[in-house]
Amino acid sequence: MSNQNNVSNSDFWDECYIDGNIGWDLGEATPVFKDLCHKIKKNSSIFIPGAGNGYDPIYFAKNGHDVTAADFSIKAVENMILKSNKDNIKLNVLHADIFSLDRQLIQKFDYVIEYTCFCAIERSRRMEYIKSMHQILKKDGELIGLFLPVNKKIEDGGPPYSIVIENVINQFSNYFDIIESKKHPLSIKARKDNEYYIHFKKK
After folding, report:
1. Quick check: pTM over 0.85?
2. What is the band of 1 on the pLDDT scale with cuts at 50, 70, 90?
3. Of the candidates 61, 64, 113, which has an alpha carbon nearest to the alpha carbon of residue 92?
């Protein structure tokens, strides 16, 4: 792959989608988020970074939420637009770099839903991600995510880049309070012991 491991280059992610090298893709909405979707207030405004093929944002939108889905890959964006149009679902899809989001998004969202985006960026940029998500959330907004892979070694590289839950919570603590951290019973079998569900609230 010509852009191998250059995760800051959108071409790298386009090639992943074109080549079908998308091991993070479940092919359907995430069970944890399907459950969450029906527990939060209807018509919540939701931002989903690194939304990929769009299964989660489409599910949230189909069930009465106001959803903005963003991805760095134009191929992923095209896939989301095709899927949402086919199902006649209103979904705001952005081709965007999460580190330079439009200022119009500041304090716009009730929730950020995180899955496989945080682990796809270099460790050196994780605080940038946290600040960016903090900015776009409303006062008392919440970030809810599944963080993985916790069983991968740092030296194994990425993406996905390994996660140490204690470090993640510590990094977020500058901008968020933690509501809950646990291994979620609805995590898919293949990831049950390799991911943590963490629920944060904006400070």
Report:
1. yes
2. very low
3. 61
